Amino acid sequence: MDNFEKVERLREKADVTYDEAKRALEACNWDMLDALIYLETLGKVKKSTVTTYHSSNDGEDKLYDVEKTVNAEERKNKEESCKMKVKKGWDKFIKVCTDNHFVVKHKEKKVIDIPLGAALVIFALGWHVLLILMLISLFFDYKYNIIGKNDLKTVNSAMDKVAETADRLKKDFADNTEEKAEVKNVEL
Prior knowledge:
With 188 residues, the protein is mainly alpha-helical. Helices cover 71% and strands 11% of the residues.
């Protein structure tokens, strides 16, 4: 159906002038149902007693386009929400790295005190060597802590337990060595 026929049908159904029907259709992108509802809202036509209206395929396309738009908006909002969560997490991580320091002590004297972020970068670059050095240094009375604004008691308590375990192993080793030396002295 061409636009002229639509104007004529709307003019007949709504009992309006040709110009009113044409303006309503143009305002509603040539959709008959939307134009009839538009004219009703303007008070140009009585509300119909007919309970069903049929529209052209253009309306279905609009509905489909609206659904696609809504889905695209929801997807965009979810992506933005995910980006915001990542950004907040990253910001929190940076704040923890700058507000706290990695401290190495030897017999309660600070040997190293660097920002936690720098310590993590250094550890990431040479973790295989640093891990071995850190474990060996525990046997020479070195201790590790993280100090600063954040409450890192669980991390510090874990590092303290590792240091205590190293002290216990060192003491057990020393005791076993002394016992073996005593046994050798007795045999001689």
